Amino acid sequence: MTYDILTALTAFAFVSSITPGPNNLMLMASGANFGFARSIPHMLGIGIGFVVMVILVGIGLMQVFDTFPITHTILKVASIGYLLYLAWKIANAGAPEGAQSDARPMTFIQAALFQWVNPKAWTMALTAITLYAPDRSLTSILLVAAIFGAINLPCVSSWTVLGQQMRRILRSPAHLTAFNWLMAGLLVASLYPVVFAT
């Protein structure tokens, strides 16, 4: 991989990881509701789960979509349904010390598995492999995954920090409820490109 391609891949990994999407919006909500420390498994699940996803997409999953186009539609419907469910959970989350003390942040495994129904993660993984590992050699695939691993985790973690900082503003239950509904609405809005893609 040339220096120019490596630079372009690094820029793509940064921009696609730092911009709003389901992972970042959920981490912001988790930071606001549970704080940074309790959201660490969620952050690690996203970071490691996405790296594994990139590797598996690179070594063969792209061919499944090419061979069986219906799988793309099935994935799209499952992703939309699951994101709507998560939006509902975020909208109805409460502060851990509040009435809904059974509320918990997403676990490592849940966050890692979520990558498989996250439309933005699929788009990022498929684009990264197509553009930056077109030969699909194991070396290229692992390099793409390593670049994303180094860049993605700090980017998504910044959203948790932002959410945690917002806790100062969201001390009243009414403010926290409004914030959670806003995050749920933004999560649903993030589906727009998926639902209306041509």
How would you describe what is shown here?
With 198 residues, the chain is an all-alpha fold. The chain has one domain (13-189). Helix content is 78%, strand content 0%. The chain is built from 9 helices and no strands. α2 runs antiparallel to α3, α3 packs across α6 and α3 (36-67) packs antiparallel against α7. It is globular and about 55 Å long. The model has no long low-confidence stretch (mean pLDDT 86).
**Helix proportion:** over 70%
Task: Report the span from N to C terminus.
Answer: 32 Å
Count, helices:
9
Q: What is the string of helix and strand elements? A: HHHHHHHHH
State the assembly state of the protein chains.
single chain
* Spans of at least 5 consecutive residues with low confidence: none
Could you say how many structural domains there are in total?
1
Average pLDDT score? 86
- Estimated share of beta-strand residues: under 5%
Would you count the extended β strands for me? 0
Shape: globular
Describe the largest sheet: none
Q: What structural class do you assign from the helix and strand content?
A: mainly alpha
What is the CA-atom radius of gyration, in angstroms?
A: 17 Å
